[in-house]
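Readers outside the structure-tokenisation community will struggle with the description of the input data as it stands. Showing the layout once, in full, would remove most of the difficulty. For illustration, here is how one protein appears when written out as sequence plus structure tokens:
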Amino acid sequence: MRLVRPEDLRARRLEPEAYIPALKELLRKGTLELSVAVRGQEVVEGLEDYWSLRSLGCQLVPVTEGQRARVNMSLESLGLYDEVTGSEARVYGSVLELVRRERPTPLVMIKRAGRVRLWAKLEWYNPLSLSIKDRTALSLVEGKLDDIMLRGKVYEASSSNTGVAVSALSRLFGFSAKLYIPETAEQFGPDMIRAMGQEVVVKGSSTMELRPLAREEAERDGAVLLNQFESYYNPLAHIRWTAKEIDLQSRFAGLRLKAVFATMGTAGHAAGLATYFRARRPEVKVVGVQPAEGSSIPGIRRHDQWPWPLLDAPAEVVDVSDEEAARVALAIARETGLLPGLSGGASIAAALRAAEGEAEEADYIVVIPDHGVKYLRLYSRYLGA
């Protein structure tokens, strides 16, 4: 048996749907029982485990020549957490290395509510879109990179942040991008995409309305549709990075972690977090957050059914109004100097409600997708109130 880096092996590509069951089982057990069989550097058996390890970000794969053998190696020993510990000096040789290695994003305590300490994971530290969507976009692009480089262009519908991240990545990888943004989006999205020199179509009232147009024009023009709404590369990004970071940071800080709160737009990071924690730390509840009936909160929406059937759903979904989200976000800004975006305000509001019923000392983590500076026009309705 020898240990090799996954990128040093050649393997027939599997779509995520083919290996997600194996990935979930690996997470649940925490151990790889059998090696991956190779002939030279070619994977010949154990493809599902190979792609699972690679998607989880493990830095090593145990291989044996010709056939699989029992190895019983922990995911930690295969470097599960290595890529989310970052560079101590924070010096990077390229922007792409910065995007891949500037991890973890900060976790900071922002409030004590009764017996609960509330921690915010600040996703605006992602450098391209200043949002959690850098993770989604990188996973979508790298998952389909061969096809993208062959065709040379990608199309995608986005409420803004994913579109900005895709536009930035297009410059790093060398492909063109066409983004479809609803007229209801804040102006930073279309302006940032144009600043990257990419094409933007501003039309319609929602991303759901624009999805058929993006698909139709991608098929017509021979472009790759990234499709963050259905591609499992979206939630896999949050198993690989967001969830692992929260797990590592909470253990480092000695938190009594009881719940993680995640907003639901595509529900990608909610699915990734729910799947990871249900497998690795089932005592931690993942709570989804969505707009209340009749409310509009940028970047998130209500779901009639769970969009990721191969992955776990949050244990609970909480409704928050746009007014409550804004009020809580502004209160946090006035207490801490940190202004979350409206979706982050919704998550904090949900966590504060849950904290009211907490009978023992506990820690909650709230994922803050982006910064409130993008939404000052919307916040202006509540300023001075």
Summary: The chain is about 40% helix and 20% strand.
